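Dear Dr. K.,

Following up on our conversation at the group meeting, I've run the structure prediction for Bifunctional folylpolyglutamate synthase/dihydrofolate synthase from Candidatus Faecivivens stercoripullorum. I'm pasting the input sequence below exactly as I used it, so you can double-check it against your construct before we proceed with anything downstream. Let me know if the numbering doesn't match what you have in your notebook.
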Amino acid sequence: MQNELTFEQALEYIHARPRLQLTGDEASRRAASFLSKLGNPGRGLQIVHITGTNGKGSAAAMLSSMLTASGRKTGLFISPYVLEFRERIQIDGKMIPPDALALLVEKTMDAVNEMEREGQPVNEFILDFGL
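The predicted C-alpha cells came back this morning:
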C-alpha cells in the first residue's frame, strides 16, 4: 500500500498541531479519548511507563536497550528528540522508518478530525503518543 502522505508532509502535519498547554488531568483525559478512537492500540501490550523529573529518556533508552539485547521486542517513545523527530519512536532500538511514520500519521487523521469536531483538539504530544 502506497502512502498518500510523504514523510515531509507527515512531519508538517504533526508540527502543525495546536500548541495547547493542557493540565495533567485534561491531558490524560484527552489522550485516553484519542487512544480510544484509535482502538486502544496499546491494549494487551506489556508496557513500562517511566515518570519523574529528570532522566526519564536516559532510563527508558537503557531499559529498551537491555530488553532488546535480551531478545525482547521493544518499542520506545521519548520526548523530546535531540536531532531528528524519528528518535521519538523506536522499534527494537531503531528509529521508525520515514514511510512507516507517514502511514501511521495517515491512520490517525480521522481520529484527529473527530476529536476536533468534538471540541477536543489534539496537540502534537498527544498525536505523537498515539502514533
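Two things stood out to me. Strands lie at 75-77, 89-91, 94-95. The mean pLDDT is 93.

Best regards,
J.T.
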